[in-house]
Amino acid sequence: MIPFLRTPDSRFKRLSHYPFESHYMALTSEPLVKDGTSGLRMHYVDEGSKSADPILMLHGEPSWSYLYRYMIPVCAAAGHRVIAPDLIGFGKSDKPTKVSDYSYQRHMDWLQAFIDQLDLKNITLGCQDWGSLLGLRLAAENESRFKAIVVGNGMLPTGEEKIPAAFKVWKAFALNSPWFPISRIVEFGSFKTFSKDERAAYDAPFPSAKFKAGTRAFPALVPTSPDNPASAANKAAWEILKKWDKPFLTTFSNGDPIMRGGDKHMQKLVPGAKNQPHITLKGGHFLQEDSGVEFAQAVNRLLVGSQI
Q1: pLDDT value of position 305
Q2: Which of 13, 44, 92, 141 has a 20 to 30 A CA-CA distance from 114?
């Protein structure tokens, strides 16, 4: 087992607008056993009717399921089951202590174990940022388990795309800056000004720098050249997405300098995006903070309108 840390529960007491019950899963599967990561504990929110089809909400960098606190109740109230895990290294999930402990494939294996162990079916994917890099590939590699996809400010890069200057700056900062203020990073990527409680909630998973290896690792794992270890698998996933005829909705924001234009690109490539009620929401990169209710309502409208 690789070394990991577990954030004390006391760090998560009295979180603002996060009343959800905690659920935990010890991840087990053959790839994880061989990789030395079997048994890591993943936290997740599971709200709404357990008999309903699930909406799987995947967060990105450096947030956690707290990011979806405004969306979860709206989708659950509409009759859906809402599942929002904390990726390994984030939130209430276990945190391997070395940047080198994280890879794109390991994150994929952890999520694969998660949906396999819950045996999720008829999934609607809701994703943003790294939630899209992982979620879009997860859906492509498990097409029979997914019935719809909703992407807000996300993409599945293969290493052949032009890299925005803003991302290059972010990657250098994540890898090299001695100062890495999680809550301020999320706030900077939003239009809104965070309250003291909101900042405390985003900082809660990380009592010290030792807990932040996963947040430091993500930017360097994004495929930025065709020879990246994840490029081949992402290209294979795109071959499936280019034939994806199930509902595919984009809900990008109007203020994201990194993902701007990605929605139009995916609408052209994915057959299931045709004639869907695509929407542009107000907000920065973390549109769940700026337009969380509207994002959730767009998911609900898609599922009602598609009658799926």
Answers
A1: 78
A2: 13
